[in-house]
Amino acid sequence: MITETALPQELADYVNEWKAQKGNLIMILHAVQDHYGYVPKDICFTLSKELKVPLARIYEVLTFYNYFSLSAPGKYKISVCMGTACYLKGATEILNAVKAELKIEEGETTEDKMFRLEHVRCLGCCGLAPVVTVNGKVYGKMTKDEFMKILKEYKEKG
Amino acid sequence: MMNLTRESLEKYNDKSGKEEETNYIKVGMSTCGIAAGSDRVYLSLLDEINNKNIPVKLDKCGCLGMCYAEPMIEVKIENQPAVFYGYVKEEDVPEIIEKSMQGQIIENLVFKSDNIQKKIVLRNCGLINPESIEDYLSKSGYQALKKSIFELNPDLVIEEMKKSGLRGRGGAGFPTHLKWTFTKNVQSEEKFVICNADEGDPGAYMDRSVLEGDPHSVIEGMMIAAFATGSPKGIFYIRAEYPLAIERIQKAINDCYKCGILGSNVLGSDFKFDIEIRLGAGAFVCGEETALIASIEGKRGYPKPRPPFPAVKGLWNKPTVINNVETLANVAYILLHGGESFGSIGTEKSKGTKVFALTGKIKNSGLVEVPMGVTLRQIIEEIGGGILNNKKIKAVQTGGPSGGLIPVDYLDTQVSYEHLDQLGSIMGSGGMIVLDEDDCVVDIAKFYLGFCVDESCGKCAPCRIGGIQMLNLLEKISSGNGEIKDLQRLKLISKAMQKASLCGLGQTAPNPIVSALRYFEAEYLEHINDKKCSSGKCKALNTYLIITETCVKCGMCQKNCPVGAIEGDRTVGFTIKPEVCIKCNKCFEICKFNAIKK
User: Fold this and answer.
1) Same domain, B561 and B593
2) B240 at the A interface (CB within 8 A)?
């Protein structure tokens, strides 16, 4: 059973600001994801009532766009860029190495909720391919071994 | 900030073009620069300057396009000409400051550019502080807008665009002046100008660089489009994956409101224009005009059949001009320098310049802006510095997932809409990816098609079903189970998708395969008939062998083989049992002596 949760003040303000505007749903969902790191189900219930939009419409939009996530991210979000330039320069090897190290697949979070692994389409840093980001911090010209070292540092930092 | 009007802008016009007289150091701080460590270089410079009380102004700027040489800085001291330094590290900072102040140049860090490039779109990128409207104003900023409003009228603006011959830089190459004319001719209170900044092509990032490095030039272009078409409202549709670009565009919009460039009386005239930002959310199909509109309306990004075209019936069913970032960044230049002057650059049918993201197996990866009509070879060899690691070039891929492969024999082809089209590729948004002999065309086709299958919205059957069927066929070929008939099947499905898909995504998705079959059929046949992939990319087709002559019998391969497929010992040497080998590539990676062949 999913219950409604009141919106935190920051989000409530944002919703009020956008409420009257046409086509506001995606912008509001962005704000929710920025706040929680994902879009929680109970918030969708609240939004549905607030915006008078059927829940199905919200779900339809959330599942269409890659950027939105329906489950909680780990503490560190690792995004391996799989744009063409990165792919050619060995991004797959990095991705596979991370998978093997953390024992998760793409789109999954480790059991201890530390790491989430994703592949992204293109971060627009093709000049530095291959590129990996950890919580938005960009690591360019990566190799498998080098990124494993970085991953280890994050693990130790906790 | 002061209120800008026709008169106060005039003063800036006098100043522009003059050399700055103060000492300055500018650090490239776009996403790529920061990733390479320019933020740390910036901080060291700041420390050094403050600690030693050096009379020099430290500033941030966008990307100069030479991403491979980041972090890059520009140093201008006293009467010396400005110097660019590349690959700057924190350790270099004290020496840079010390020598520069003595009027010396550090030769080994100096960065020289080529002389093929011509910068129009990237004219200010890397040279001005993108967060400062003053900087933009000092480079003739908003002069073209002023000229349009006060000296020209909408018809004359469009006339000028027509003379320039500018075509849309987003991919399809539709003449910009025609789009504007269609929208202008529709009577409507509400009209929109949308800047399409949903740069989804993997391997292209010129739009990000312009938004991060020179946001005002895009805003100015958008405002001129709005003036010409009579649209009071503009929308930036930007990818959420570009946080820095969003931040800088927002800052630029805020500054424009503060000084009267945006709002109800633009530069004191009665032209009214407002801009807001809407974020994309990671859907490649939203680069397609009708899908982009659906997304701004808060819905799934499904494309619609055209006509009606958005120019007539677009956002909220109102006439809407949609232009790409690079297209808009050209507009102010055209108005300022005249359509004819812009039209004198390029080939007969492709005018002006084009920015390419030159990436892949190339020495100097980065953004290049070249006049239309230069050859691929000039771009790759003279600007790109040739291929990495002395390998041989195999092909160039332009146009991303909608484009095609151009084999090495055609490198002397001119870059233009018409020439690339003849070769079965497209200009696209400007991705230019260089492949070397280690790349496999089946693998690349699989990569692009996999992308399109993932990104297909699923609305129409040819794209939804055709894509996945083609991908399965490619999988079959790359796993060694391909039949000759499969090539025929691929061609058949390609044709169906090209003819029957609803939008550009599906219509162009087969292009990488069609062009690969046109130029590299032999490589497909090798996969099918000989069950062999000479580049070694298609793993299932690899057989691992130990080259006895090169092997030093160290035993590392045997030690690391997870399935015990390597037999022998350190006296007799080693061999791989193919029936046990799982082709995990471990031995190949571990061997320091290149004694393993696949």
Assistant:
1) yes
2) yes
